[in-house]
Design a protein that fits this description.
Strand content: 15-25%
Order of helices and strands: EHHEHHEEEHEEEHHEHEEHEHEHHEEEEH
Largest sheet: 9 strands, mixed
Strand order of the largest sheet: 11-10-12-13-9-14-15-16-17
Radius of gyration: 26 Å
CATH topology of the largest domain: Rossmann fold
Distance between the termini: 69 Å
């Protein structure tokens, strides 16, 4: 009996079984996963006659064949691994993963470029999207909510590029962020009161700083009786416990000549849907103007995020994005839109130990010349490192909230307490 121990022998056996399976599956329109697994077992028994396969080899072969036919091939195990937060595929031969903030190279690779392209086509088709040479860049998501970005040749020079950002199966809570040291209890309570009271809050930060996670956490403080509309490129938010929730997602143009639906289109449409709050997952361009106009026209308590390296940079980026959407609007009018639309700016960052922290919380204000001014309410202060090189420090309160009218209207602040938040009433759910 031949021992299938060599890699080449094992791979030849796997490919012969795979070809036989695909031929049989092509003749059957629909087949449940359980039936496919049963068929795989039968094929392994048939094709391995006269060869020796250990139990572990058989189990490995069953899993590889099933993942290759019905799932995401060699990526499926990574997608199901809760410790993996990011999967980066740089062509069929190079895969990198992120675990606990550290990047490592994954030892497996796709058998061919065509197999990687098949996996990509399967992912985008599940979101009713199309990616090809004519439309080589697309955002999508997996069924578990993971965010997907695809870039194909000729734009990508080293083959199809696939990036998957995996989110926790259960949304992270503020309690967990406190446990991680990402924020202090005082700052968390402060933000909770502001969300309940309807302050417009904008979250900024660099790539991987946790903006979407933090947006989701703040969304959890919105009173459950309100009507919420979420607007995203690819639906990622996991808002829990809200019955009156509308989730909107953009649509790209495809081969059937469908008209693309942009973030701008969805924001404008949402204004006619009687929202209490509008949550825009991320603004990247001209839609910033529509978001600010929504915040300035009675939709208090709206939330959004954008990329920026600092709070000051975020203001500059917003100005640029609004210019893209406004055309001839003077910069002074744009700055008024920003300062009156956004109440609070929260900036997140990823420190050198790879930990994600709330680095600062600012109140939007204007100076005597009418320029935008950021009043720092909380700022992260580093105090050192522990024995394992983890950064020690915390958000330190720097100033009291200046504009407390919304807190007063929500019944969360007594009129005589305008100079501080010492007598905030009991928590409101």
């Amino acid at each position: 009996m031949k021992d299938v121990g060599a890699d080449n022998d094992y791979e030849r056996l796997r490919e012969s079984i795979r070809e036989s399976l695909l031929e049989k599956l092509d003749r059957q329109l629909e087949m449940p996963d359980e039936k496919v697994m049963e068929m795989i077992r039968e094929e392994i028994l048939y094709h391995s006659r006269g060869s020796y396969l250990s139990l572990s080899q058989k189990e490995k072969l069953r899993k590889e064949l099933f993942f290759g036919i019905r799932k995401l091939d060699i990526l499926q195990e990574l997608v199901e691994d809760p410790t993996v937060t990011e999967i980066m595929v740089n062509g069929p031969d190079h895969i990198f993963i992120e675990r606990q903030g550290a990047l490592t190279k994954y030892p497996e690779q796709f058998v061919s470029r065509e197999k990687l392209e098949d996996v990509i086509a399967q992912i985008v088709a599940g979101c009713n999207r199309v990616v090809n040479e004519r439309n080589p860049i697309v955002d999508a998501r997996l069924s578990n909510g993971s965010r997907v970005n695809v870039v194909l040749p000729p734009v990508a020079l080293n083959g199809p590029i696939l990036t998957i950002r995996r989110f926790p199966e259960h949304p992270i809570t503020m309690e967990q962020l406190l446990m991680f040291g990402s924020i202090t209890g005082e700052a968390a309570d402060f933000l909770k009161q502001l969300v309940i009271a309807g302050y417009n809050i904008f979250i900024s930060g660099g790539t991987g700083s946790g903006k979407t996670t933090f947006l989701n956490v703040l969304s959890g403080f919105i009173p459950k009786t309100e009507r919420i509309i979420t607007i995203e490129d690819s639906a990622e938010l996991q808002i829990q416990g809200v019955e009156n929730l509308v989730r909107l997602e953009t649509r790209n143009a495809n081969l059937e000549d469908m008209i693309p639906i942009t973030i701008r289109d969805l924001i404008r449409s949402s204004l006619r849907m009687r929202p209490d709050r509008i949550i825009v997952g991320e603004v990247r361009g001209a839609e910033a103007l529509d978001m600010l106009q929504a915040m300035n026209t009675g939709h208090d308590g709206s939330l959004s995020t954008a990329h920026a390296n600092s709070a000051a940079d975020m203001i500059s980026r917003l100005e640029t994005m609004v210019i893209l959407g406004s055309g001839e609007l003077p910069i002074s009018a744009i700055r008024r839109q920003i300062s009156s639309g956004i109440d609070i700016l929260v900036h997140l960052g990823r420190l050198r130990d790879r930990s994600r922290r709330v680095l600062s919380i600012h109140e939007m204000d204007t100076d005597e010349q009418g320029e935008i001014a950021l009043r720092t309410l909380f700022a992260f202060e580093e105090t050192g490192e522990d024995a394992e090189k983890r950064i020690l420090g915390a958000l330190v309160k720097k100033a009291e909230l200046k504009y407390t009218a919304k807190l007063q209207l929500a019944g969360l602040l007594q009129a005589e307490d305008r100079d501080g938040l010492r007598n905030i009433q009991a928590e409101q759910d």
